[in-house]
Amino acid sequence: MRDAQFSLAELMEHNNSNPNDSMAILQWYQRAAEQNHTEAQFRLGERYAKGNGVAADHAEAANWYQKAALAGHAIAQYKLGVIYEDGVGIERNPREANKWLNAAARQGNAKARLRLSGCRTC
Question: Mind listing the pLDDT tens digit for each residue in 38-47?
Fold first, then answer.
């Protein structure tokens, strides 16, 4: 069921010519994410971080990134690390930032490796 919900959201998102579909896309991602669909959790994080179809909410983005990061999603781990490092939407926490950036880097995430090397604009 969750895979079908995710696929429907993804299909609607990629074929979206109607701005009114944004809420429906969000709802389908939400349904799949609540059933532990990792990519749906990440996509919800992205939507909340960017304010895509919903008001931007960095704390909510961090919440969804964390769920995906705990499931091993490398990009979510990187983005969560950046949020903790910068203190965007949540309290700044260098220890958590390092934990998540290292987790992403171990999975080969080049941006995480650059960030750990001190490059914040890479």
Answer: 999 999 999 9
Helix (H, G, I), strand (E, B) or coil at 122: coil
Q: Say how far apart CA 2 and CA 24 lie, in whole Å.
A: 15
Which residue is it, tokens 């995430």?
109
Domains detected in the chain: 2-116 (1.25.40.10)
Tokens of 27: 């709802």
Query: pTM for this structure?
Result: 0.91
Q: Which long-range contacts (CB under 8 A, 24 or more apart) does 96-104 make?
A: 100/69, 101/77, 103/69, 103/74, 103/77, 104/74, 104/75, 104/77, 104/78
